[in-house]
Amino acid sequence: METDKMSRLRIALALATACATAAQAKAHVVEFHWHVFSRSCAIGAGAQESITYAFAYKRWSNVISEHYQIDDEGTRSWLHNVVTPTDGPKGPGWHFGRRGRAGHFGEFWYGHVTGHHWGLKQYTGQKYLLWNSDATDCNLNEW
């Protein structure tokens, strides 16, 4: 009977590990458990955004999201930049938490979004680039 319980526990742990690994593979892991992605989505609420997130850790992050519109000929035109909407003790755009987001809703077009994801080194407080992300669609595989 005890062996049967152990077998079921091992199977459950293996399945949980496989599911977690598959979920992490969808977003770009940049450091420890930090993920970054951008999306340009004309459906739903029309989200144009770049996000840095982690489920387990809090830290300082800063996200800058560049938004471009692409016309029928494929020409990309810069529209504007959006920065994390905070002004904390580390300065404008810095956010302490599990998720940093720069973007907005209501732009119902597919374009090109480039995200610049920044972090602060834990002991020195030095700003450094985590990663840059790009999207020309909703990036639903990142969720």
List keywords for this structure.
alpha+beta; four-stranded antiparallel sheet; globular
Give the arrangement of secondary structure elements.
Elements: H1 2-26, E1 28-31, E2 34-40, E3 48-53, E4 59-70, E5 76-83, E6 87-88, E7 91-92, E8 94-97, E9 99-104, E10 111-120, E11 127-135
Antiparallel strand pairs: 1-2, 2-3, 3-9, 4-5, 4-8, 4-10, 6-7, 10-11
Description:
The protein has 143 residues and is α+β, with helices and mostly antiparallel strands. It is built from 1 helix and 11 strands. Strands 4, 5, 8, 10 and 11 form a 5-stranded antiparallel β-sheet that branches. It has a 4-stranded antiparallel β-sheet with strand order 1-2-3-9, covered by helices on one side. Strands 6-7 form a two-stranded antiparallel sheet. Strand 6 and strand 7 form a beta hairpin. The model is unreliable at 12-27 (pLDDT under 50).
